[in-house]
Amino acid sequence: MQRILLPAGVAVVATGLLTAGLSGTSRAFGDISQDSMARDTADAVSVASFWLASNGAALRSATPYTWNAGQIRKVVSKGGHDPDGKPGTTAPISDSRPAAIAAQNVNLPKTVGKVFFVDGSGRFRWCSGTSIQSNYRNLVSTAGHCVYDTAADRAVMDKWVFVPGYYQGRAPWGIYVGEQAFTHYDFEAYEDHDRDYAFVTVYNGIHLNAAKQVNRRDYQGFTGPKRAWGGRYYLLLSKDAGRLGDNVGGQGFAWNQPAGRTVRAFGYPAARHPDGDRPYGGVTPKQCHGRTTAKALGASWLKIEDHLGLKCAVTPGFDGGPWLLNYDNSKRLGYVNGTTSTFADQDGNDRVDYITSPYFDGETEAVYDAAKNVWTDKIVGPDGELYR
Predict the structure, then answer these.
(1) Is 108 within the bounds of a domain?
(2) Which residue windows are coiled coil (predicted)?
(3) Of 6, 118, 368, 376, which is least packed with CB atoms within 10 Å of its CB?
């Protein structure tokens, strides 16, 4: 892994410029950056209401967070991968329900879903992500560029939520509002895609439960989603969906693993290939299966020196999705050992045929460790109101 270092004087100037251009609260501890998203339950209420309004209209209108076609090129083989310590794993957690019967077909993991946010240009976007094991069962793994808005020079994307099992505007296990984002300092500060991964703590999920007609006074005092039409006033009552990991489980985590291992990658592809062809609709998750590249891959235009590659003809929208090592098809669980970061055209025919992921090493594990111990709250009260 090539670290980006600046002379001390230059580093101070660069850090000041970056801080001036970023919104939100950002703190760096060594190699770890920590940023607030929805800072409290009032912020979380606002975010949840935004995506739940009009029966999830904003969710349905979102588009994949696409790459510039000029960045989809051939990636270059480098040397081998050098772990910075001993291999390690954190075991996955199930959702405490009976495991599905084993089948020859691939059982899609319940943990995988869509990450939704508003980018710096105001557009509704999505990436992919997964629930991952944590002490409070409240953690999402995704790509750094699906959390940090490098294009708009902001700390984090706006109105960030995770929807596991998303399907055509539906959220079967609820919507989970992001509370804090953790990534490697080199990604947030320098956009170094060798560190293009992030872990986000989320509040308890929420479900829309029912609509209740009320008088105008109660309508005006209600703190959740609501609608008025035809002289009538309705409250869109919510209920607490519980913790993310309790509902869908959480994938394990693995670092400093040897390259060349077999993985399954999952995500929601939808954008066009560079040649204009659009084979995916982004409605349901897709998967790829194969061995990762034994040699490191590089892409100088994204400061990449040490990525893994996987032969996989998916398109943007898939980014942020997990690469699962030792995937158990009956339990639908494995170990997150990568996350889709970039897309590559290795044979030069203007179609994506490779995806790449940062190599997960001890520094990745340090970012994960910082995130997995953070507690989050619920945002729905006992009467269906959203907390303020």
Answers:
(1) yes
(2) none
(3) 6
